[in-house]
Automatic annotation (TrEMBL):
GO terms for molecular function: ubiquitin protein ligase activity; zinc ion binding. This is RING-type E3 ubiquitin transferase. InterPro entries: 7-in-absentia-prot_TRAF-dom, E3_ubiquitin-ligase_SINA, Sina-like_RING, TRAF-like, Znf_RING, Znf_RING/FYVE/PHD, Znf_SIAH. Gene3D superfamilies: Apoptosis, Tumor Necrosis Factor Receptor Associated Protein 2, Chain A (2.60.210.10), Classic Zinc Finger (3.30.160.60), Zinc/RING finger domain, C3HC4 (zinc finger) (3.30.40.10). It catalyses: S-ubiquitinyl-[E2 ubiquitin-conjugating enzyme]-L-cysteine + [acceptor protein]-L-lysine = [E2 ubiquitin-conjugating enzyme]-L-cysteine + N(6)-ubiquitinyl-[acceptor protein]-L-lysine. Keywords: Metal-binding, Transferase, Ubl conjugation pathway, Zinc, Zinc-finger. Its EC number is 2.3.2.27. SUPFAM superfamilies: RING/U-box, TRAF domain-like. Residues 114-174 form the SIAH-type domain. GO terms for cellular component: cytoplasm. CDD domains: RING-HC_SIAHs, Sina. Belongs to the SINA (Seven in absentia) family. Residues 61-97 form the RING-type domain.
Length: 317
C-alpha cells in the first residue's frame, strides 16, 4: 500500500479558492536566462491550456484544468494536483482516492522552470516570450490583454480588443455613436422618481481617432437620489490621462460644470461611479434644471474632450 494512508472518502465541497501563487517571487525570474537551458514552447491560439501539446497537459491540473504553479502536489501514486484543488478535495487524490499527504512534485516544478512560453495574448498582438513562472505576472498587466465590454446596463461578459468592442457596442447594445470632440446631449426620463430602475445610458464619441464612453445614470448616494455623468476612455490608463473633458448642465441662469480626466475602461463602470469621479447632479437640482412641473427629467448635458498636449501647444503659439 502506498505510504501516507489508505483510500479516502470522496468529499468535494466548494471552498473559496486561495490567492494565486505569486509568480514574481520565484527565483526563476532572477536567474539569468543564459545559465539555464530553456525550451521554448510555441503554440497558436488563445486557449493554451486546451492545447494538445503534451507539455501543456503535463502542467495542467487534472481537476481544474488551469496551469499549475508551485507548490505542485502529487499523491503517493504520482498523480499531480494544483494547490487550490488539493484543498478543495480535502487532501484526497481525485484520480486514485489515496490520501495526498504533503508531497511536492519538485521534478515537475523544476522542469516548468526550464520552459519558456509565449504570452497567452499572442493572438491579440503580444509577441513576448516568458519563463513559465513570470508568464502569469506579465499576463496580468499585458497591454494586449482583452478589455471588458464597457456597457453598464447588464452583466455583459464580452471581452476583446477595442475594435471588437466598438463593433459589439454598435451591434449588440445598439449604442449611439457620435463623431466629434464636443457634444450636446439631451436626457429625458418620464418618471424620474424611480431611481431603483436605474437610468443608465451610454453614448460613444469618436475623436482624436479614439473612443470615449459617456455614461449617464441615476443612483443613490446614501439616501440621496442623484444623476451622474462621466467619461471613460476606450484604452489604457496611461493614454486616458493624456485627455481631459468638461461637462456642463444647467438652466434658468444656473450651471454646474465638471472638469475631469476620463477613466480607462480597465476601471469598471461601478468603480468609477462609486468613486464619484464625474458630474453629480442632485435630483432636486436636476428637476429644477428640467423646468416645467418637475414630473419629467429633461437635462441638456454639453461637453468637450481635448488632448492636454495640444491645448498646451495652442496656448504657447
Ligand atoms: Zn486544480
Ligand atoms: Zn492518486
Ligand atoms: Zn503579453
Ligand atoms: Zn457588451
Amino acid at each position: 500500500m502506498a505510504p501516507g494512508g489508505g483510500a479516502c472518502k470522496e468529499v468535494v465541497k466548494s471552498v473559496p479558492t486561495i490567492a494565486d501563487y505569486d509568480v514574481g517571487t520565484t527565483k526563476s525570474e532572477s536567474s539569468p536566462t543564459a545559465t539555464r537551458s530553456s525550451v521554448t514552447v510555441g503554440f497558436i491560439g488563445k486557449q493554451e491550456v486546451h492545447s494538445n501539446n503534451g507539455v501543456y497537459e503535463l502542467l495542467e491540473c487534472p481537476l481544474c484544468k488551469t496551469l499549475m504553479y508551485p507548490p505542485i502536489h502529487q499523491c503517493p501514486n504520482g498523480h499531480t494536483l494544483c494547490m487550490n484543488c488539493k484543498i478543495r478535495v480535502h487532501n484526497c487524490c481525485p484520480s486514485c482516492r489515496y490520501d495526498l499527504g504533503n508531497i511536492r512534485c519538485l521534478a515537475l516544478e523544476k522542469f516548468a522552470e526550464s520552459l519558456e512560453f509565449p504570452c497567452k495574448y499572442q493572438s491579440l498582438g503580444c509577441h513576448n516570450i516568458f519563463p513559465y513562472y513570470s508568464k502569469l505576472k506579465h499576463e496580468q498587466h499585458c497591454r494586449f490583454r482583452p478589455y471588458n465590454c464597457p456597457y453598464a446596463g447588464s452583466d455583459c461578459s464580452v471581452t476583446g480588443d477595442i475594435p471588437t468592442l466598438i463593433a459589439h457596442l454598435k451591434d449588440d447594445h445598439k449604442v449611439d455613436m457620435h463623431d466629434g470632440c464636443t457634444f450636446n446631449h439631451r436626457y429625458v426620463k418620464s418618471n424620474p422618481h424611480e431611481v431603483e430602475n436605474a437610468t443608465w445610458m451610454l453614448t460613444v464619441f469618436n475623436c482624436f481617432g479614439k473612443q470615449f464612453c459617456l455614461h449617464f445614470e441615476a443612483f443613490q448616494i446614501g439616501m440621496a437620489p442623484v444623476y451622474m455623468a462621466f467619461l471613460r476612455f476606450m484604452g489604457d490608463d496611461n493614454e486616458a490621462k493624456t485627455f481631459s473633458y468638461s461637462l456642463e448642465v444647467g438652466a434658468n441662469g444656473r450651471k454646474l460644470i465638471w472638469q475631469g480626466i476620463p477613466r480607462s475602461i480597465r476601471d469598471s463602470h461601478r468603480k468609477v461611479r462609486d468613486s464619484q469621479d464625474g458630474l453629480i447632479i442632485q435630483r432636486n437640482l436636476a428637476l429644477f434644471f428640467s423646468g416645467g412641473d418637475r414630473q419629467e427629467l429633461k437635462l441638456r448635458v454639453t461637453g468637450r474632450i481635448w488632448k492636454e498636449e495640444l491645448e498646451l501647444q495652442n496656448k504657447t503659439v
